[in-house]
Amino acid sequence: MKYDVVVVGAGPAGATAAEDLVRSGHRVAMLDRLGRIKPCGGAIPPRLIADFFIPDDQLVAKITTARMVSPTQRHVDIPIENGFVGMVDREHFDPFLRDRAVSAGADLIAGTFVRITRDADGSHVVYRDKETGEEQILDTKMIIGADGARSKVAAQCVPGGDKIPYVIAYHEIVEAPEANASYDPKRCDVIYDGKISPDFYGWIFPHGGQASIGMGSLVKSVDVKQATADLRAAHGLTDCKTIRREGAPIPLKPLDRWDNGNDVVLAGDAAGVVAPSSGEGIYYAMVGGRVAATAAAAKLKTGRAKDLQLARKLFMREHKQVFRVLGAMQNAYYRSDERRERFVSLCHDVDVQKLTFEAYMNKALVKARPMAHLKIGIKNLAHLSGLVSVTRT
Fold first, then answer.
1. By the 8 A CB rule, do 298 and 198 touch?
2. What sign does the dihedral 196-11-268-32 (CA atoms) show?
3. For labelling, which of 93, 163, 324, 342 has a CA lying 20 to 30 Å from the CA of 349?
């Protein structure tokens, strides 16, 4: 059988791309190693739930408050007004997305990507079958690489795809304690503390009867397991039963190119689409899968290789400014504990809270409140220049 598209990787990006393509009449195969669970806090905004038709039974928790914790343990609780942030567990969410794509008509093949070959008959994805260990071949017209931050498809086929910078994220899924003074099953805690992560943050995210506790860092000398143990100890979670431990690379910025100008286009982590500062990935992965499917479908219809550029163009048209602002914020406030302390001080401002969560929930910068933006800008300058104390709110 010759496929129109083989999608390498069947996480949120790959499964979304596959489902969109089969629903538009294309013959699609998803190739995935299966059995692996990506470390992920699991937060998804209302826009994702609406845009990708996520049923309520996939939500393991509904978060109504976010707590920002500073290096000196000061904290501010930010209410999530007019809604909630959904939480999913990737152990179940990824199979749900794969099953939905299969129900729509995609084939799911268990195996490990090896390489792509080409000849007069087209493109061929060579993979190692999970059950037999033998190399097999999928004949196809197009390939979508959705195989993660250290994408083999990107490294083999796309210029610059072998040089994507990334942080290492690690988390532990534990049995959640009963609600108490330090743990609230409807609150996400984000810990900005150089002792936990010198360049990112730690998190405690409820997952219903479980919780995700983890951190990320670009610094290779950081012991992510010890940092997570320290985080658990600091918040009274050491004695919670550990269910599983997971680690993986998370990309730092989008690649300059997402296609090879011929038969390959990238999506999700393989294209580098994780938001700076927040580390949010699921929403952007699924959007990345959707625009990759759009680009692949356009190329199949017109035969024009330049149509593959649509994936990056469509994504950046909507999200480039958000990524730029978040990147600037990370560069400004994640570089030292003094700056982290100042960042949490800023988070006490009601306008900062409202604008931040309006942007997060709807995935667009809020432009309708110029005076609030002006006030926040002045506060930013005052903190970054050291004109006010680190605890000034």
1. no
2. positive
3. 324
The C-alpha atoms of residue 66 and residue 85 are separated, in whole angstroms, by 10
Which CATH architecture group holds 2-39+90-164+254-319? 3-Layer(bba) Sandwich (3.50)
Phi then psi dihedrals of residue 75, to 5 deg: -145, 160
- Element (DSSP H or E) covering residue 128: strand 122-129
How is 346-385 classified by DSSP, letter by letter?
HTTSHHHHHHHHHHHHHTS---S-HHHHHHHHHHHHHHHT
Put simply, whether the predicted model's pTM sits higher than 0.90 gets the answer: yes
- CA nearest 362: which of 63, 80, 33, 61? 80
Alpha-helical runs (H) found in the chain: 12-23, 46-51, 90-104, 152-157, 224-234, 282-302, 310-333, 337-346, 350-362, 370-384
First-to-last CA distance in the chain? Answer: 63
How many angstroms separate the Cα of 217 from the Cα of each of 41, 188, 254? 15, 19, 18
pLDDT 10s digits, 127-160: 999 999 999 999 999 999 999 999 999 999 999 9
Per the CB < 8 A criterion, the answer to whether 110 and 129 are in contact is yes
Kindly report, as residue ranges, where domains of CATH 3.30.9.10 are found in the chain. Answer: 62-84+166-251
Superfamily for the 62-84+166-251 domain: D-Amino Acid Oxidase, subunit A, domain 2 (3.30.9.10)
- The three-point CA angle 157-159-161 to 5° equals 75
Q: Model confidence over 195-205: pLDDT tens digits?
A: 999 999 999 99
**C-alpha torsion angle, residues 154, 90, 97, 209 (rounded to 10):** -170
Residues paired with residue 206 on neighbouring β-strands, in sequence order: 211
Dist CA 270 CA 164 (whole Å): 9
Residue whose C-alpha is closest to residue 116's, from 155, 149, 163: 155
